């Protein structure tokens, strides 16, 4: 564990339960706005505190889910306000374009299914929310599915932390490995989808070209 993370863990564990809950809610919300925040780390750590009897399972999952869903919908709202500028590479240069390009393919292919899975997709949560807002997905359905996704992910992390207790860092190792595998699989899926679209476009153009040729005499 790095020194900074260790100091944070010591500070968090020294708080009363209500203070830990407040930090959990704030971090779960903030990681969507500022992705470098250790959202998953804090959720797993709080899960370990559940296992040690410091916190309770239901409020821990509920607050982590509420923060995650509210943060996602905040980014969604920002995406709606920005509109088409999100898609323009010449504007808003602070948006990472590679994750955005992947998220565009995901949304085109699976629509709201991407919102359901967003918490389980490594490295793309904030970009998905931003792009979903710019793509004018419906508020009601997006809020519902974002909540389902946040709840499922939070429950999994809290449960993992609670089972391992003081060895909660093992969960973070598993998450890192999971992220690498998911990133690789999604990259393959995106490449296959793009290749299929390109092949289909060429096939249509070839078919159209054959129709335009005059019949031989």
What does this structure look like?
The protein is mainly α and 217 residues long. 77% of the residues lie in helices and 0% in strands. It has helices spanning 3-13, 17-33, 39-51, 57-82, 97-110, 112-117, 125-134, 139-164, 169-212. The chain is elongated and about 70 Å long.
Features:
single chain; 217 residues; 77% helix
Shape: elongated
State the low-pLDDT regions, or none.
none
Q: Report the end-to-end length measured between terminal Cα atoms.
A: 80 Å
Q: Which structural class do you get from the secondary structure elements?
A: mainly alpha
Q: What's the Cα radius of gyration?
A: 21 Å
Oligomer: single chain
Write the layout of secondary structure elements.
Elements: H1 3-13, H2 17-33, H3 39-51, H4 57-82, H5 97-110, H6 112-117, H7 125-134, H8 139-164, H9 169-212
Helix pairs in contact: 2-3, 2-4, 3-4, 3-8, 4-7, 4-8, 5-7, 5-9
């Amino acid at each position: 564990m790095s020194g900074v993370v260790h100091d944070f863990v010591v500070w968090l564990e020294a708080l009363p339960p209500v203070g830990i809950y407040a930090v959990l809610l704030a971090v779960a919300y903030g990681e969507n706005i500022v992705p470098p925040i250790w959202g998953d780390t804090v959720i797993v750590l709080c899960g370990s505190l559940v296992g040690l009897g410091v916190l309770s399972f239901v409020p821990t999952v509920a607050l982590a889910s509420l923060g995650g869903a509210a943060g996602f919908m905040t980014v969604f709202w920002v995406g709606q306000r920005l509109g088409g500028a999100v898609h323009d590479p010449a504007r808003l240069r602070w948006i990472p374009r590679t994750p955005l390009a992947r998220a565009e393919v995901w949304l085109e292919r699976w629509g709201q299914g991407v919102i359901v899975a967003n918490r389980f997709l490594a490295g793309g949560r904030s970009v998905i929310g931003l792009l979903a807002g710019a793509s004018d997905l419906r508020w009601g359905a997006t809020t519902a599915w974002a909540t389902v996704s946040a709840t499922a992910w939070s429950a999994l992390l809290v449960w993992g932390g609670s089972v391992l207790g003081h060895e909660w860092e093992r969960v973070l190792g598993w998450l890192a490995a999971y992220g690498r595998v998911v990133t690789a699989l999604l990259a393959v899926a995106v490449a296959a989808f793009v290749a299929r679209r390109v092949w289909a476009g060429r096939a249509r153009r070839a078919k159209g070209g054959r129709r335009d040729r005059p019949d031989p005499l």
